[in-house]
Design a protein that fits this description.
- The chain is α+β, with helices and mostly antiparallel strands.
- Helices cover about 40% and strands about 15% of the residues.
- The chain has 23 helices and 21 strands.
- Strands 1-4-5-6-7-8-9-10 form an eight-stranded mixed β-sheet, covered by helices on one side.
- Strand 7, helix 4 and strand 8 form a beta-alpha-beta unit.
- Helix 13 packs across helix 15 and helix 16 packs antiparallel against helix 17.
- The radius of gyration is 26 Å and the shape is globular.
């Protein structure tokens, strides 16, 4: 997508703020550029990846404008980060370890073994992962993939797995797949349970519709953006369950450290003793990370995150010559590795501890976010800056983890929803024209935060007020230009884009056939329960049994009072007879309940055998709502 409206120029207020921000940056420290170039072997030429139909799913070359002097529409700090992240190609980390960078949001790491190569985190899309592996093989020979490791349960670390191996090789035992315990549960839950809402907001977070130019998409802070190819999943064949667990893949010994609840619910670091190399997954990168990502997720635990970084230091740092992560570039040298991990540790620890200190003094999350300043040593550290997470929204997330949404003020206990509140605000302000006049004055004064707050109410009170939309879009653009944080910039500019051009929906599909195929029976019924339209199902009482043939287990679902529950039926179960019993395989259950397969066709083809009343399944499916991937964000 490209924009159809000329973006505004940065105002004098925005330009002045960016100049002031530049003065506080440690520009004399250029070591990151040396590290980002170190070990370069070859790049993909052109830096474009297409799918089987010729559609572009990744285009690193489209960011070629990110070079030279920072334009006046970009934070100089974010510009610097983007200049580092557009570097693309195959890089040697240390003898026998290579990384593919700049071919997706994340890195893919390749560790050479006795007979082949172990792939760590095969990107988001099969197409980008395959392109990365091909680039490696051009330089290092046609080595077979002899193992796959997923560091954690986010899609940019496993989605491209079928670009580097096959289900046949995995099932045959030729390619073991290792992951932290709980990987499948959390990977599937995140992408299926709330996948529609997360996908819609991810379009804002990664700037899906923004033009690639100095007034548009600069980066996401963690990487440039996300690829849009084919997402796949192959479930792990080996779970890593304990810290200190050791495994050998293709002759390579690996020591693992479990880090659940940090950057992902299921995550792990690991160490290669023979290479003196440490993989930090996504627990230490060259940015302050998210405690709660803006696309939505379960709130992370900054306290244990800090603790696990301390544990990584004590377990591995003294014996490490290089540490690398699944984003950005490595750190070399024992002292530098230790310093990097220590400063990352202190960043999350300080945010957590100071938020707790201030909330216990009665301050709310939004107040603490304005009050809290990081220590000078961290403020001048590039990799502690808020390119992906930010002090502001991380503090609010920590507050949310401990205190929830309510700030304790009873005035905020039962507020009107946005549209009803907006109508009352506009009435209290003396009408939309008066509010618009106030907003224009605030815009001229450079108070863009107040502009968008005022106009939020104008727009939600009257979604047809085009003048308010245009002025809010103008203010969003100025806030975006001034943002050091990549997702903040993208959110602001995407908000402006949709106000001017309309809803872009969700460009990416949150779940894929292989993702759905990984659902357990419990997760299938959970996912169905989350879609029940409660009011439509209030008076419906259904009891169905499900004989899942490939698991040799009978499950019962009961729909009552708008709630769908399920459980495995014990062998000596005493209860009411089911309305209907359905005999089918787990893949068919997934297809019918979660995949949208036509029930009648499944019955007629013999995939589903029915005893009892066959209409009962149709009654259940009839009260399942369909998620809306195009819901509005900046308008009611």
């Amino acid at each position: 997508m490209t924009d159809t409206v000329q973006l505004a120029d940065p105002t004098t207020h925005t330009q002045e703020r960016l100049k002031q921000a530049a003065q506080s940056l440690p520009m004399s420290d250029t070591s990151d550029f040396e590290d980002a170039d170190r070990g370069f072997v070859a790049e993909l030429k052109p830096g474009v990846v297409r799918d089987a139909d010729g559609k572009v799913v990744w285009d690193n070359d489209s960011f070629s404008y990110i070079q030279g002097t920072c334009p006046n529409s970009v934070s100089p700090s974010l510009w610097r980060q983007a200049q580092l992240m557009i570097k693309q190609g195959l890089y040697e980390v240390t003898a026998g370890i290579y990384q593919i960078r700049g071919l997706d949001l994340s890195n893919m790491t390749l560790v050479e073994g006795d007979t082949g190569v172990i792939v760590i985190d095969p990107l988001i899309s099969t197409e980008t992962a395959a392109a990365g592996l091909a680039l490696y093989r051009e330089q290092r020979g046609d080595k077979p993939v002899t193992g796959v490791i997923y560091t954690h349960s986010h899609v940019d670390h496993f989605g491209g797995v079928m670009g580097v191996t096959t289900t046949e090789d995995v099932r045959a035992g030729r390619v073991p797949v290792l992951a932290p315990a709980g990987f499948v549960e959390h990977a599937v839950a995140e992408n299926v349970y709330a996948g529609t809402a997360m996908g819609r907001r991810a379009a804002y977070m990664y700037g899906a519709a923004l033009p690639r130019d100095p007034k548009g998409q600069i980066s996401a802070g963690l990487g440039m953006t996300t690829s849009t190819g084919t997402v796949t999943m192959i479930p792990p064949t080996k779970d890593i369950t304990t810290t200190g667990q050791q495994e050998v893949i293709d002759g390579v010994r690996i020591v693992f450290q479990m880090t659940p609840g940090t950057e992902a619910p299921a995550e792990m670091n690991f160490y290669f003793p023979s290479r003196r190399a440490l993989c930090m997954a996504e627990n230490a990168t060259h940015t302050l990370h998210n405690i709660l990502t803006l696309r939505g997720a379960v709130v992370r635990d900054a306290h244990v995150w800090s603790q696990y970084l301390t544990e990584a230091i004590t377990m591995f740092a003294a014996d490490t010559d290089v540490a690398f992560a699944s984003h950005h570039w490595p750190a070399w040298g024992t002292d530098r590795v230790t310093e990097w991990l220590s400063l990352q540790r202190d960043t999350y620890g300080y945010l957590h501890d100071q938020t707790l200190r201030l909330l216990n003094q009665g301050h709310t999350g939004i107040e603490i976010a304005e009050m809290l300043r990081m220590p000078p040593a961290l403020e001048k550290t590039w990799h502690a800056k808020g390119y992906y997470g930010s002090v502001s929204h991380d503090v609010k997330a920590i507050y949310q983890r401990y205190m929830g949404w309510f700030d304790g003020n009873p005035a905020n206990l039962w507020q009107h929803p946005p549209v009803e509140a907006a109508k009352r605000y506009i009435d209290a302000m003396g009408g939309a024209d008066h509010a618009m006049a106030k907003a224009r004055t605030a815009f001229d004064d450079g108070d863009y935060r107040w502009v968008v707050e005022l106009l939020k109410h104008v727009i939600f009170a009257d979604s047809n007020n085009d003048a308010a939309k245009q002025l809010q879009a103008d203010a969003f653009e100025q806030l975006g230009y001034g943002a050091e944080n990549g997702p903040w910039r993208n959110f602001y500019l995407m908000g402006a884009y949709e106000l001017r051009n309309g809803n872009v929906g969700t460009p990416t599909v949150p779940s894929s056939p292989t993702m759905l195929a990984a659902l357990s029976v419990d997760q299938v019924f959970d996912a169905a329960a989350f879609l029940i339209n409660g009011p439509k199902a209030w008076d419906l009482h259904l009891i169905n049994d499900w004989i899942v043939t490939d698991e040799n287990t009978t499950y019962r679902t009961e729909l009552n009072n708008g709630v769908l529950i399920h459980y495995a039926v014990p062998s000596k179960f005493k209860g009411p007879a089911p309305d209907a019993t359905f005999t089918l395989s787990r893949p068919t259950l997934i297809a019918v309940i979660a995949g949208g397969q036509d029930l009648t066709a499944a019955v007629q083809s013999g995939q589903v055998k029915v005893s009892g009343d066959p209409t009962k399944l149709g009654q259940l499916i009839a009260v399942l709502d369909k998620p809306d991937p195009d819901f509005a964000i900046v308008t009611p």
